[in-house]
Design a protein that fits this description.
Blueprint: E1 8-13, H1 26-42, E2 47-52, H2 54-57, H3 62-68, E3 73-76, H4 85-93, E4 98-104, H5 106-119, E5 123-132, H6 136-149, E6 152-154, H7 156-164, H8 172-179
Parallel strand pairs: 1-2, 1-4, 2-3, 4-5, 5-6
Helix pairs in contact: 1-3, 1-8, 5-6, 7-8
Length: 180
């Protein structure tokens, strides 16, 4: 299945201040998430930003918040973003059938969100180098489980170029400069 820029929305999952310092490979993850967010913005992909129990876990990390502050944010206590009716309705309201997912933690909130999105009939695309957990094995097993469940795995660079399609695309130079 090809990922089509005209049929995608982005679901950002719980990249928050108090949890982020404990995440494996957090420096690389932050860099990857920023590039992903900027590239998706170049392609004008709609965003749905989710935050788990902000009182306990805090706000979206500053480097991402400055990129996503204009988008609606949905606070939740369920692990799955789909457990918040407003967030699920926002995803449905985009009218897109392919949902790109990235965030933390892969084996809890990302996993449950992806599984619920599949149940809702969406084609789910997991940006594997834009997800992590406190323990690497949790991330690895969650990705393996999600792929077995039907989620499409990709990387941010592969995804951004797949959305661009052609070196003559008007967004090609912007995307190429992001991934250098």
């Amino acid at each position: 299945m090809k990922i089509d820029v005209n049929n995608v929305a982005f679901c950002l999952v719980d990249v928050q201040e108090r949890l982020f310092p404990h995440i494996t490979n957090k420096e690389q993850l932050e860099k990857n998430l920023v590039i992903l967010a900027k590239g998706l913005q170049v392609h004008e992909v709609p965003f749905v930003v989710n935050e788990q129990y902000k009182k306990g876990i805090g706000e979206t990390i500053p480097s991402l918040e400055e990129l996503v502050s204009a988008y609606a944010h949905y606070e939740k206590t369920t692990f799955s973003c789909c457990g918040n009716d407003d967030a699920l309705n926002a995803i449905k309201a985009t009218g897109k059938k392919q949902i790109i997912v990235a965030g933390i933690e892969t084996h809890v909130c990302v996993l449950q969100t992806c599984l619920d999105l599949l149940e809702e009939g969406f084609q789910v695309v997991l940006v594997t180098d834009c997800c992590s957990s406190r323990k690497q094995n949790d991330t690895d097993v969650a990705i393996m489980r999600l792929v077995q469940a039907g989620v499409i795995p990709t990387t941010y660079e592969s995804l951004l170029f797949e959305l661009t399609v052609n070196a003559k695309h008007p967004n090609f130079k912007a995307i190429a400069s992001l991934v250098k």
